[in-house]
Amino acid sequence: MTSSDNDVTPSTADRQNPMLKMALEIGPLMVFFFANLRGPWLVTQFPALSTLGGPLFVATGLFMAATILSLVVSKFVLGHLPIMPFVSGIVVLVFGTLSIYLQDETFIKMKPTIINALFGCALLGGLFFGKSLLGYVFNAAFQLDAEGWRKLTVRWGIFFLFLAVLNEVIWRNFSDDFWVAFKVWGTMPITILFTLSQMPLIMKHTVQPPAAADAEK
Fold it and tell me: From CA 208, how far away is CA 195, in angstroms rounded?
């Protein structure tokens, strides 16, 4: 089985450790939020962190460390690197490094814009070439017919682009603390609500996997 197959088909570890998988994806964001919130205290307790810069840079450094740890645990416990956390992790490391090295908050603030725009364009671009890439994003969580995948891919592609625009509006017009809080407590609920809103479409276009169909015969 190739690595791409592992990305598409949920592994036994994925099915046995759903809470761990969620924690690995959400954990780095929580570290980022609390490190920004308690930045001065962390510098007091760990003076070496002061070399990174202000609270947002300290939070960025710890965010990068938590992201690396999350990817390592994913690889060794779940047996593979899911596409979205992997791509997001690469962007976090690149833009986080630039932010700290240049002491410019713009890079880490634009990270969500880049990631969401990348996924949005990839999904919509894939449809242009007759390919639905959403199965990789959802790790084959659903079995849909072709029409269902097409509609769901269009909706998610537009939603990712909406998140990219929303991030630009937030970080350019509000304080650092508000942006960090919205990144954790705003974007996540919006995404969950959007996902739930797609359940009628998913249920309408769900098809029975061949293996399940054969087992019923």
Answer: 21
Segment 78-117, tens digit of pLDDT: 777 777 788 888 888 999 999 999 999 999 999 899 999 9
For 23-41, letters b (16+ CB in 10 Å) and e give ebeebbbebbbebbeebee
DSSP 3-state of 206: strand
| 27, 158 contact by CB (below 8 A) | no
DSSP state of 79: S
Strand partners, 206: 144
Half-sphere exposure of 49 (CA within 13 A, CB side): 22
Residue 40 structure tokens: 């001065």
Count of beta carbons in the 10 Å neighbourhood of residue 44: 11
By three-state DSSP, how is residue 198 classified? coil
CA angle 172, 159, 147 (to 5 degrees): 165
